[in-house]
Specification:
The chain is of the alpha+beta class. Helix content is about 15%, strand content about 40%.
Length: about 170
Amino acid sequence: MSIFEPIKPSEITPDPFSLIGENWGLVTAGTVENANTMTVSWGSLGFLWNMPICNIYIRPERYTYQFTESENLFTLSFLPSEFRKALQFCGSETGRGRNKISDAGLSTIKLENGGIGISQANLIIECEKIYYNDLIPDNFLSSDINKFYESHGIHRMYTGRILSCLRATH
């Protein structure tokens, strides 16, 4: 398990495009006793309503959706490259009827604000849900977007106020 130090959101590295789009992360919600995680490669970090925020997108058919719906906090955990197989596993397997986190060779850590992070992470971003909305297909201005919804449900977007950012000191 890593030891973490707090950092400011402005100190997050690498840039969000690499962090989320290329490296991927795990969104986790729940309690120490009952949490679930899934791989995310879509999301954003920024500034809205005079606060640092994170946007994540989860389809309703994902098991993690019910955890994100029922909890006020979620985390994004970014892992070292040697955990790429764990990220692939968490993106393709369900947590229904199993402990997907431990099956992926990972473990959780309870954070100071109550969020659940992945202890093997290099970086954990802890967020409090402050807004959500389902994407509206009629508002897609590019027909290229429709291909992402031909056989899957429409994502729900969650906006979270960033409460803490923790970097592993290893």
